[in-house]
Design brief:
By secondary structure, the protein is α+β, with helices and mostly antiparallel strands. The protein has one domain (4-179): Ribosomal Protein S5, domain 2 (2-Layer Sandwich), CATH 3.30.230. It has helices at residues 35-47, 65-83, 134-146, 160-179; strands spanning 4-10, 14-21, 28-31, 51-58, 92-99, 102-109, 115-119, 126-127, 130-131, 149-156. The strands form three sheets. A four-stranded mixed sheet has the order 1-2-4-3, with helices on one face. The longest helix has 20 residues, at 160-179. The chain is globular.
């Protein structure tokens, strides 16, 4: 049974569609109008082994905030829909990813309780048209809408590009592990019987 979903969301600020397959091979096509964010989403799909398509238009004349946050919302919803009842998944996943001087830890619990705990000091600057403060906004939206508990911790890093890219890759790898199927699991991995 496939674990894929397509979710669309239109507001007065953005128009976003996301299609993903949790059991993909890392085939990615993204177009958000924010080139650095496209680069991060490409890394997210490739390192998470997600087949991922993202199409987004937003009020970029204002700034990139609404587009980045709303993609996080829709991608989180797509992950949640694709997971279905969560039966047979590993539930927990973690990854430590270096990128040059940056070193990032990401840990995920597919808990049903969406929350982000983010201890990543990133220089405040603009990379292309991407405000570096938007990385945290993206992950807040992703975690809360996917229903995952997400911890992200930076052990090292000076370069904003390296820090953010390592973060996207670490979260992607942790997610891939958490949503992977465990052949020994017979049902939902929770003492409650539901996630």
């Amino acid at each position: 049974m496939g674990r894929s979903a397509t979710v669309a969301r239109t507001t007065r600020e953005t128009d976003i569609a996301v299609t993903l397959d949790l059991d993909g091979s890392g085939t990615v096509g993204v177009a958000t109008g924010v080139p650095f964010f496209d680069h991060m989403l490409d890394a997210f799909g490739r390192h998470g082994l997600l087949d991922l398509a993202v199409s987004a238009t937003g009020d970029l004349a204002v700034d990139s905030h609404h587009t980045v946050e709303d993609v996080g919302i829709v991608l989180g919803q797509a992950i949640s829909h694709a997971l279905g009842d969560r039966a047979g998944i590993r539930r927990f996943g973690s990854a430590v990813v270096p990128m040059d001087e940056a070193l990032i830890l990401a840990a995920i619990d597919v808990s049903g309780r969406g929350q982000l705990h983010y201890d990543v000091q990133t220089p405040i600057e603009v990379i292309g048209t991407f405000d570096t403060t938007l990385a945290k906004e993206f992950f807040i939206a992703l975690a809360s809408n996917a229903g995952i508990t997400l911890h992200v911790l930076a052990f090292a890093g000076d370069n904003a590009h390296h820090i953010i890219e390592a973060t996207f890759k670490a979260v992607a790898r942790a997610l891939a592990e958490a949503v992977s199927r465990d052949a020994r699991a017979g049902g939902v991995p929770s003492t409650k019987g539901v996630l």
